[in-house]
Amino acid sequence: MLKFFKIVAILEGVSYLALFANMLFIKPNNMELYKTLLFPIGMGHGVLFIAYLILATMLKFELDWSWKKFGIIAIASVLPFGTFYVEKKYL
């Protein structure tokens, strides 16, 4: 389960960066492409974000993580590059 969580963490981080890239680089230049990409990237990121938090909660109890470690892992999901940091340092 930990290996699956690592994969979801990396995918969630990549989808978060793709969502930012869509907003920062594509939107000012090509509004039609932005609108086309917004829904699939946003939906994918939302599903991965929820999966990340559910798996983190399950692993907290399965591996007996402290509340501090769990809090850091959960907060990292809302920070850019946070899941990459957590994957390297805590997992």
Give the helix proportion (percent range): over 70%
Quantity of strands, as a count: 0
- Content-based structural category: mainly alpha
**Shape, principal axes of CA atoms:** elongated
Termini, distance in Å? 12 Å
**SSE sequence, one letter per element:** HHHH
Low-confidence stretches: none
How much of the sequence lies in strands comes to: under 5%
Largest sheet data: none
Q: C-alpha Rg, in Å?
A: 15 Å
Mean of residue pLDDT values: 87
How many domains make up the coordinates? 1
Individual helix count? 4
Short description:
It contains four helices and no strands.
Key words describing this protein structure:
91 residues, mainly alpha, 4 helices, 81% helix, elongated
Walkthrough of the structure:
By secondary structure, the chain is mainly α. The chain has one domain (2-89). It has helices at 2-26, 31-62, 67-75, 82-89. The longest helix has 32 residues, at 31-62.
How would the blueprint of this fold be written?
Elements (H helix, E strand, L loop, with lengths): L1 H25 L4 H32 L4 H9 L6 H8 L2
Helix pairs in contact: 1-2, 1-4, 2-3
